[in-house]
Amino acid sequence: MTEWDIKKLRILRTLAEQGTVTRAAEALHMTPSAVSQQLTNLARQLGVVLLEAQGRRVRLTDAAHLVLRHAEAVFAQLERADAELAGYLAGDAGEVRVGAFSTAVPALVVPAVAQLRKAHPGVEVRVRETEAAESYELLSAGGVDLALSLAAHAPTARDRRFTRVTLMEDPLDVALPPGHPLRDAADLRLADLSGDPWIYGGSGPWSEIARGACEAAGFVPEQAHSASGWTAILAMVEAGMGVALVPRMVSSRASGVAVRVLSRDRPTRHVIAAVRRGAESAPAVAHVLAALREVASARQ
């Protein structure tokens, strides 16, 4: 029977995710030579060629992809086993490390933690503010147990490494300066603001969301100012420097600006939670997911 080495299979998966031996070694806190040696040993154990030279880099062979396809099922089953064992040993207790994007921390994670302290005081949550790409790298590598992100910036549902849970829809409202002529308009559409100066990030996910929403409404927004933090964006709107799209999770706490719900052309983003496939049955993780669902449902 073929000898399967879980540790070496995890190294192979990390190489597939990171793309190079050097980056895989950094993610695994190993030396590149140690990574190469472990993969050479794995190939010998399995009796197949796993890597091919491609210039100064390496490429995974078809055999390597076949191995990884089956390995993902093994990893998921091991997560389930860990979850069941943790439940058996710890009962209603455990630590859950959560990676979440900035607006989700006060809007979803903090209220969920408050609920857990009352309902399941044995569950300890450790929070880490992360961008989507970082949170999924951490989730895959075991650095966090649960990742919160926007659906548009998460791995697809076909990614066998993760189980995704849709938490909520988060509509985008428009923030207007206090004296804006349309602040009291009865039927405000995004297209009505096509001639206004806009404030949004210079690059990254939020820049794409803002431009995409405006383009879907039939115009390209004139970017007057660029900022990535909501405190800065709302301060500029309050000062009359432009208008901005603001997620409902943020606009519900905004003051000093006129926040309007768009009657039409209303863009919406979706917030999801993801865990390593199989880990959703761990009691502590299940409690955190349930608390997040309850908080998200109350915000709908």
UniProtKB/TrEMBL annotation:
Keywords annotated in UniProt: DNA-binding, Transcription, Transcription regulation
Statement: the UniProt record of this protein carries the keyword Transmembrane helix: no
Gene3D superfamilies from the UniProt entry: Periplasmic binding protein-like II, Winged helix-like DNA-binding domain superfamily/Winged helix DNA-binding domain
Domain HTH lysR-type: from-to ranges: 4-61
PROSITE patterns, per the entry: HTH_LYSR
Residues annotated as signal peptide: none
CDD domains: HTH_ARSR, PBP2_LTTR_like_6
Family the entry assigns: Belongs to the LysR transcriptional regulatory family.
Protein name (record): LysR family transcriptional regulator
Organism: Streptomyces virginiae (Streptomyces cinnamonensis)
